[in-house]
Description:
Elements: H1 2-14, H2 17-38, H3 43-49, H4 51-56, H5 59-65, H6 72-90, H7 93-99, H8 104-138
Helix pairs in contact: 1-8, 2-6, 2-8, 5-8, 6-8
Amino acid sequence: MKKLLIADLRRIFKGKGIYVLMILGFIFPAISALIVQLSGLAANDVAELGDLAAEVFNPVALYAGSFNPTQNIGLILLIVVAVLISGEFTNNTIRNKIVAGHSKTSLFLSSLVTVLTYVFVVVLVNSSFTYLFNSISFGFG
């Protein structure tokens, strides 16, 4: 199982996909914060709009919303994970691993841990930059 995990993680981090998604995890929050900043909802304007706007444009609420899988990065991540998993069946690498003597349970657990690590890294980058950019736009307090 350890060798499978090392091979799968090496394959993931060797490719360009995770780095492209990390860049998108930086760009999407930056663009969102920039659009809100340019629309005039700066830190002092939110207080004038009332309680509802203060709840919506709160950096902590926007940070919590960045974990929602229906956000931009969540939808892209869903597609990339599906491509990663189906790629093993398309390229017959799963068959080669079974022929090499690995059990199906260890193969699927290895794939699960690899995909969860992939998702965790990308979501961590996205949520961190979401909080950073929105805190800069709306104030840290």
